[in-house]
Specification:
The chain has two helices and no strands. With 58 residues, the protein is mainly α.
Length: 58
Amino acid sequence: MGKKAKLKKIRRELKATSGENSQPNPNNFIKQVEKTGYRLQNIQRSPEVPRDNVEPQL
């Protein structure tokens, strides 16, 4: 068995095993977002933008 064939075999095995264990867990997403500095309980929203159409002053 050649070097490239061995690498192909290893890659196929990794894809097969990672496909079985890749169940999406919503807690993982929250943990990843918290690592970037965001908090679920302390949401900082942008200030409200007025909807009035302001005419430019000449």
